[in-house]
Predict the 3D structure of the following.
Amino acid sequence: MSESLFGIHGIALELRSQRMGLLTSNIANAATPGYKARDIDFASALNARMAGADSEKAAQAATLYRVPTMPSLDGNTVELPTEQVAFSENAVGYATTLSFIRGRVDTLTRALKGD
């Protein structure tokens, strides 16, 4: 029902939420030896999801390991500035998508009230 009601915005919100969790995990493990930073290719995941793939499978298929600019000696590939920028960009996208959904809900609410 949410797909027919919210269209691409509902799907995008799901994927942005999954990406937020992954980026948060990267930041939390910045000091963990051997941890490999991962990220979701949002465009690929969105295309797969729009083609009918399950949300979880689309995100997994679009999850890639991040290639570090400056490899760490302990094998950790998290670069905190890169992760922070990706997190911030995703947070802005999440908020924007949520605004579109909120607008749709407001429009439907007004229509049901007869305003």
